[in-house]
């Protein structure tokens, strides 16, 4: 059962990239922060429904919710700024390597990984490198470096928080934790949208529709991560999800978006498949 849920987790992770791509293709002027605020609002509603509108808040949850809200918001804003200020390929590569943070956290709390798992992890890092690197003009700046480092750290730490919360509360209060976190994120991102002066045009309905679908997908990802973190070691869970995302990304790029991939990218995807096999042995 847990491996079926793991497959679902990989699918929902990949689904978010597809939803964002479709929104950017259809929207003439994508509203990044408003889209993200809608995503967070949709998650609040999702977790309210998931709990059957029966909540049990405890004060001890507040620090975890505030921390996750800050990480989630900083991840979205930092990702947007780092892509705006620097090279796309290097930025995405560095951010993708943030999976190392929850993986190392798993090792820190005593989880172990075999030789095949270590080889699988190394192959995954190589795969990410081959897929991400493209020929483009590389312009680096201090503000880009700060933005990408912040995004790298908060992206990894947000996964760690999703691992810690069920552990500290014996699997309880998942819905309440996420509701508080996403409500705070929604407020932060909406304010960011106002500061950015994103004009809500006639495309507002498009933004709300795609943002809502993205929010549901992200909510399912967060819920599954919190559940599976108690069943599957972090040193296996996060690398497998990343590698699985690579495989699904390859399938979608070739068969749906008809993208032409370089030889190195194709090799990278097949190495990604090999890393999944080794990580699960």
Structure commentary:
This protein is mainly α. The protein starts with a helix and ends with a helix. The radius of gyration is 18 Å and the shape is globular. The protein contains eleven helices and no strands. The model has no long low-confidence stretch (mean pLDDT 87).
Strand and helix layout:
Blueprint (H helix, E strand, L loop, with lengths): L1 H25 L5 H19 L10 H25 L2 H9 L3 H9 L6 H18 L9 H27 L5 H22 L8 H25 L5 H22 L7 H18 L1
Helix pairs in contact: 1-9, 1-10, 2-8, 2-9, 3-4, 3-7, 3-8, 4-7, 5-7, 5-10, 6-10, 6-11, 7-9, 10-11
Provide the residue-averaged pLDDT: 87
- Beta-strand level of the residues, as a percent range? under 5%
Count every beta strand, where a strand is a DSSP E run of 2 or more residues: 0
Quote the distance from N terminus to C terminus. Answer: 17 Å
Roughly what percent helix? over 70%
How many helix segments?
Answer: 11
How would you sum up the global shape? globular
Question: Which parts are unreliable, with pLDDT below 50 for 5 consecutive residues or more?
Answer: none
Which structural class is indicated by helix and strand composition? Answer: mainly alpha
Largest sheet: none
Q: Provide the succession of SSEs.
A: HHHHHHHHHHH
Report Rg.
18 Å
Give a quick rundown of the structure.
The protein has about 280 residues and is mainly alpha-helical. The chain has eleven helices and no strands.
